[in-house]
Amino acid sequence: MKKTILLLSIIISSISVSAQMLKPYMLASVASDINSAKTTVKSNLSEAGFTVVGEYKPAEDQNRWVLIVSHGELDNAVKTVGGLTGFASTLRVALTKEAGVVNISYTNPPYWGNAYFRDDFSKVEDNFKKVALAFETALNGVGESKNSPFGSEEGVEVDELRNYHYMFGMPYFDETKEFGKFDNYENIVAQIAKSLKWGKPGVALVYQYDVPGAKLSLYGFALSGETGETNFMPKIDITEPKHTAFLPYELLVMDNEVHMLHGRFRIALSFPDLTMGTFTKIMSTPGDIEDLLKQLVEE
Question: Which domain holds residue 173?
């Protein structure tokens, strides 16, 4: 009888986890001034164990600001599983002035963790819980606390996140755009540095984060020009609170390979309620992003 009760408890617990609905972003708090909020947010993040590895004004919009952060627990999680989970080595905090206030938001750790670690998430769940708590500690006291998930009306089930794709025929997490294979990790990093030094149109480095003790480097880039952020953001970021923490777009160096998450995966994951009507307005965007980032690994 005790074994039966225990088995039922495990089954119920498993169903509860898989049926959990997650949303891509958290609205931490609401402030009144973007500049003073930025200063406080950076200080609080540091005290909570985060390192700000980059920041910029996305879509050239003075009402938006994004900080990219790393954390020791993210490093530990990535090194536990490795590979494409390098895309999870940073998370993002956004300040967006809208409707007369400054919304302070961040990428929801369990949402992105489940999407990027998939069936391996149970191995790193404790790491992500610690990161989520650190975010709450750092950001909920900046202005009026909200602690409210957003970015999807109903959310996405955990099981669906771990096998996420927008619809039939659309790419999964591991169906990346791979920009060729190189002799070694060092040559790729040197090539990207060379490209950035000489400049590539429409691409500017926001951050480079090298996962300690691993041949994994995650880069984030500001995308400008007629096919960049000012072109596609107004077409997809049409609800409030804004999904500012969707940006910047990333490129991952993994050993001797260079990967970009397919735009039809990365954009859909960031905007899971995106309608097909809206998607058709950015049909060229995944290819445009690929073209912009591919320049960085070409001689």
Answer: 23-297
Task: Give a yes or no: residue 17 inside a domain.
Answer: no
Give just the sign of the alpha carbon dihedral 84, 85, 89, 95: positive
Domain count within the chain: 1
- Within a domain: residue 4? no
Cα–Cα distance measured from residue 229 to residue 248, given in angstroms and rounded to the nearest whole number: 9
Q: What is the pLDDT of residues 56-105, one digit of tens each?
A: 999 999 999 999 999 999 999 999 999 999 999 999 999 999 999 999 99
pTM, rounded to two decimals:
0.93
Q: From CA 291, how far away is CA 23, in angstroms rounded?
A: 30
Domain of 261, CATH number, reads: 3.30.310.70
Residue 249 has which token pair?
């777009």
Residue 260 pLDDT > 90:
yes
Q: What is the distance between the alpha carbons of residues 106 and 68, in angstroms, rounded to a whole number?
A: 10
- CA angle 241-247-252, nearest 5°? 150
How far the first Cα of the chain sits from its last, in Å, is 68
Structural domain includes residue 9: no
